[in-house]
Amino acid sequence: MNNTEWFSIRTLTLPAAAVALLVAFFIVWLVLRVQYSKKWSGVYGDAIFTFILVWKFSVIVTDFKAVIAQPFALLYFNGGTVGVFLGVLAVLLQLWWKQPKLQFDATGVIACSWAIILTQSIYQWLMVLLNDNPANSEVITLVVLSALTIFILWKVTAINYALILYTIGLIMVTYFQPLGLWQMAVGVSIILLILGLSIQGFAKKYEANNY
User: Fold this and answer.
1) Residue 205 burial (CB < 10 Å; 0-12/13-18/19+)?
2) Fewer beta carbons below 10 Å: N end or C end of the chain?
3) What 8-state DSSP symbol labels residue 7?
4) Nearest alpha-carbon partner for 111 in 100, 95, 97
């Protein structure tokens, strides 16, 4: 989805994409906090913090000269698309590094997998509601992702299949969006699929070590 709108909060102006992402983060954190143990909402919260931190300060990598010339640029700019990918990769590396301590079990796998799916779905829904894009792409995004999320919730019990199915569905939806397949959401979704499958691998390793 194209970002067509901007929102002002006092002196802070944010694109609709940033607002959608922050709201999605909060809703998913709240769902995990209510539905699962505090541990997994904490893991998600730590991942969010890492993502935002890397995304925000990755402007040092993407526009080093501007930051050196004007250090206050760190307050107003971010790493853009590159920063988003760096943030997601940082989360993947963080969970890989901390997985012996986190001890992913079956509940943890389900919680993290649903966090991956819901974060993307809610973000896409909010991008439709907050921006002004072609009506056909908005309807397709809302209807297909809503139906897919509900179908996975009620019918798909194998978590790895759920993640793969959702990723395929999201990629198909992006084909009908203004930016097409070559948009950030596709790359991020693939990385998140890898993350979800990796978490399942962590859980299997944890179970094997405890038998």
Assistant:
1) middle
2) C
3) E
4) 95
Q: Is the pLDDT of residue 70 over 90?
A: no
**Taking the CB of residue 26, how many other CB atoms lie within 10 A of it?**
12
49-79 burial, b if ≥16 CB within 10 A, otherwise e? ebbbebbbbbbeebbeeebeeeeeeeeebbb
Task: Count CB-CB contacts under 10 A for residue 163.
Answer: 26
Residue 184 contacts residue 81 (beta carbons within 8 Å): yes
| Alpha-helical runs (H) found in the chain | 16-35, 38-57, 59-62, 64-69, 73-76, 80-102, 106-130, 135-155, 159-174, 184-209
Paired tokens of 166: 């959702």
Q: What is the pLDDT of residue 10?
A: 72
Tens digits of residue pLDDT in 132-182: 999 999 999 999 999 999 999 898 888 889 999 999 999 999 999 999 999
